[in-house]
Amino acid sequence: MGGFEKAERLGKLPPYLFKEIDRKKAEVMARGVDIIDLGVGDPDLPTPTHIIEAMKAAVEDPANHQYPSYSGMHDFKYAVAEWYERRFGVDLDPESEVVSLIGSKEGIAHLPLAYINPGDVALVPSPAYPVYHIATMFAGGESYVMPLVRENTFLPDLSAVPSHVAERAKLMFINYPNNPTAAVADLEFFNKVIEFADKNDILVCHDAAYTEMAYDGFRPPSFMEADGAKEVALEFHSLSKTYNMTGWRIGFAVGNRAMVDGLGAIKSNIDSGVFQAVQIAGIKALRDDQSCVQEMVEVYTRRRDLMVKGLREAGFELDSPKATFYLWIRVPQGYTSAQLTTQLLEKGVVVTPGNGFGEPGEGYFRIALTQKRDRLEEAIERIKSMAF
Length: 388
Ligand SMILES: Cc1ncc(COP(=O)(O)O)c(C=O)c1O
Known about the structure:
- This protein is of the alpha/beta class.
- The chain is 40% helix and 15% strand.
- It has 14 helices and 13 strands.
- The strands form three sheets. Strands 2-8-7-6-5-3-4 form a seven-stranded mixed β-sheet, with helices on both faces.
- A hairpin with a 7-residue loop joins strand 9 and strand 10 (326-330).
- Helix 5 (104-115) packs across helix 10.
- The longest helix has 23 residues, at 291-313.
- The radius of gyration is 21 Å and the shape is globular.
- The N and C termini lie far apart (50 Å).
- Bound molecules: pyridoxal-5'-phosphate.
- Residues 41, 103-105, 129, 175, 179, 207, 209, 238, 240, 246, 251 line the site of pyridoxal-5'-phosphate.
């Protein structure tokens, strides 16, 4: 059978670097090895009860069974604006500067369709969450890679972007606190981004999915706190990690009105918004007492300290992260990311090779702190039993 030829964009998807790991994982599992998965960035903790209760009640109400408004319920957008005001001191107009999303991934993936013409350039960090590059490519655009390296504290070096590229660029993606490097950014960096974006007519897309997952009293800033941010930027946020709601699919974007409008125009032609019962649960999450967030941070702080200590004792080189639930760790001398990952897998410990997030991630691997304490302790024991 000839079959149907797929669109070229699918052929342009980067090679699936986890294929070999998936194969190896299946092989190790088939041998009966107990697997400790530190690969996936999906919280193991449950959604807090008060949010589940709000959802249960909302599901019963027939008013929530119809199509929602594509841009979000009035109340949800107000709850987002109030949360921004309380958390960041940022003033937002709920009607024109907030849009609800079916998870922040959905919004990030759709934004290039609103701004990228075939051949246009987007500035994309690497290593990074893969959606920035893939969404640019799906819209017909080209990514210009901004490498994130330790020498530059995993911030992109804007002065290294050639002026002819900066002039052509329409969009720029950044993400702090960062996945996968766990790096954080301050307002001084955001100010530099705004200056660069202003000069080159670039729209900034800041992915802020991890601002609430921060340790030792550190409070990561919003891009929107920087002067002039609303002129050039849209900030993406998610309830996924803050409230352990990855499966619920709810997030939002805030900031530049024209960008909210542009993204809304794409969305209104593709999806029909977020199930209202989920938005009502989201309102509860954003408006209620935030002690559940504090409790989550305390759990991850303990896990982080345990893992950083254990890995350092095992001879690994890593920084203790100020934010996110990731550890970004150098592979030992003489290993590639893939070799190290495969060797750990032999012992049933699944981690993610750094080059899976882009070539500049080679030489690192990522651990997600998404297992209970006893499993992390077991992982450390297994790692220590290996000779690196
Ligand atoms: C950097 C980053 N942005 C966005 C997302 C997507 O989150 P959501 O569940 O809101 O789609 C993730 C999920 O892992 C992420 O790591």
